[in-house]
Amino acid sequence: MNSGLKYIIIFFISMVPLIELRAAMPISQAPELFGPALPFIPSLIVCMLGNMVPVPFIFLFARKILEWGKDKKVIGKFFTFCLEKGHKGGEKLQEKAGQGLYVALMLFVGIPLPGTGAWTGTLAASLLDMDFKKSCVAVMAGVLMAGLIMGLGSLGLFSLIF
Question: What is the DSSP string of 40-108?
């Protein structure tokens, strides 16, 4: 498989909710999946771009779409789940952050734990009516942080420490 196709694959994996860049970076560094590992920095950039593409759309439209669909027969339960997850994430951010809400958003997105990430963080920022530009910067910083953590982890750096 040529490297151009590999970059396209990790770009699109980075856009997928829940797995995002947290899966794409390790995949980019795993030679057993599709040949030699991709160079680290270009992989990080491609994964970050893929992870950030949905962010403005989530911030500007997801809340409206979820609120519209929460009482619909087929999609209502899922949309309600998404709204509740985003609202709970937002409440946790506000509780812990106080004045440092945007730093908390960055850390929420950047620490690769289940249920965190750009999708959830952006939805929470939207539900909390946070500033669009500041939220995007915080999410981007968090995505960089998550990318570095996952990329360095997949290279085995953390096994040297622990």
Answer: HHHHHHHHHHHHHTTHHHIIIIIHHHHHHHTTSTTTHHHHHHHHHHHHHHHHHHHHHHTT-HHHHHHHH
CA–CA gap between residue 40 and residue 129 (Å, rounded): 35
Could you read off the pLDDT of 96-143 as tens digits, one per residue?
A: 777 788 998 999 999 988 888 999 899 888 888 899 999 999 999 999
Whether 45 and 66 share a structural domain: no
What pTM was computed for the model? 0.83
Q: Cβ(98)–Cβ(161) under 8 Å?
A: no
Residues 77, 71: Cα–Cα separation, whole Å? 8
Q: Which domain holds residue 27?
A: 3-52
According to DSSP, residue 2 is labeled: -
